[in-house]
Specification:
The protein is of the alpha+beta class. It folds into two domains: about 1-25 and about 105-185, Ribosome-recycling factor (Topoisomerase I, Chain A, domain 4); about 35-100, Gyrase A, domain 2, CATH 3.30.1360. The protein has four helices and six strands; from the N terminus they run αββββαββαα. A four-stranded antiparallel sheet has the order 3-4-6-5, covered by helices on one side. β3 and β4 form a beta hairpin. α1 packs parallel to α4. The longest helix is centred in the last third of the chain and has 38 residues, at about 105-145. The radius of gyration is 22 Å and the shape is elongated. The N and C termini lie far apart (about 50 Å).
């Protein structure tokens, strides 16, 4: 029972780390990366669809993304989605594909982006804390129902805290790496 709760908590904490990692990939660093736009939602026949399901995204040069839709009728919708996004990129539509030039980041914009990274890392930490709190409640319930002893509860809480510390540290490392990536010129 205790192992099930701890395993479930670890799985959820690991997912929170993965979500953070994927979320931070969408923050641009001055280099072109398909991850910047692949999750953008494009209105496609009335349904918001991720861009990577509508087009191929390539990086022919370090500061250029090329979006080549499989259906050319969706070009304008892709262009609108890119303009509406918070990426700050201006699409260049030539009728068959869209080119996105990735401009150099200013120092001010780099600092703003590092703050955004910090906020997202903190959101990830909150998610891990919530998982810990829920697992602690489950453990308390087991102890109240006399299914585990007080000593087992104490040991399980210690294991849960160790998991929490491990994943919070992992999130901090992910955030620090991303902030360094943003600040490098």
């Amino acid at each position: 029972m205790i192992d099930d709760i701890l395993n479930e908590a670890e799985t959820k904490m690991k997912k929170a780390c993965d979500v953070l990692r994927n979320d931070l990939r969408t923050i641009r660093t001055g280099r072109a990366s398909p991850a910047l736009v692949e999750r953008l939602r494009v209105e496609y026949y009335g349904t918001p669809t991720p861009l990577n399901q509508l087009a191929s995204i390539s990086v022919p040069e370090p500061r250029l993304l090329v979006v080549r839709p499989w259906d050319s009728s969706v070009l304008e919708e892709i262009e609108k989605a890119i303009l509406k996004s918070e990426l700050g990129l201006t699409p260049n539509n030539d009728g068959t594909l869209i080119r996105l030039a990735i401009p150099r980041l200013t120092e001010e914009r780099r600092q703003e982006l590092t703050k955004v990274v910090g906020h997202r890392v903190e959101d990830g930490r909150v998610a891990v804390r919530n998982v810990r709190r829920n697992a602690q409640e489950d453990l308390r319930d087991l102890e109240r129902e006399k299914l585990i002893s007080e000593d087992e509860l104490h040991d399980a809480r210690k294991g849960l805290q160790d998991l929490h510390d491990k994943y919070v540290a992992q999130m901090s490392e992910i955030g620090t790496a991303k902030q360094q990536e943003i600040m490098e010129i």
